[in-house]
Amino acid sequence: MFKAKLLFVGPNESGKTVLANFLSDTTENVGGEYRPTQGVRILEFETQPDGSGDSTTCEVELWDCSGDFKFESCWPALMKDSSGVVIIFNPDIPSHLKEIETWHSMFISSQGLHDNQCLLIAHHKPGSGLEKGRLPLASHLSRLPLIHSNLEEEPEDVRQAFCRYLGNVVNTMSESREREEMSIIT
Length: 186
Fold this sequence. Notes:
This protein is α/β, with parallel strands linked by helices. 33% of the residues lie in helices and 22% in strands.
């Protein structure tokens, strides 16, 4: 069984905790008042990733990281041994589009992760106008997979897209493990 450590990062008030709770089946309620995450929350659950070759179950450690830069000194420790990074942002807040470049630089570029180990989620909050149009992303960000999430209107679409992403992460982990084993043998 694979164990995947996934980091949920992004600007404050972008919906990281709501999505983490939903995807880990921690709560059914997608509303409520905003309470910023202090440091990090770790949610553990098992799921079946899509497209991971065999029908194996994957143990997921979902690290819901605070978007507050006062925790920046902790981020290198959070990144250690991570399998993938999900950058979550609110496309209705113009500053978030610029901020995700910083998150990409700090969490993805610095670790040398492959594009298929990364995911951008444009999280639309309840009552916002869901626009699935093209977002003005920097060129290095436009290469990454992007999904639009709206947990009120299309919750299962979000879950399916996350499972496809998880399948990509598990495939990358499997390929890496096979390369390591072959290098030991030869």
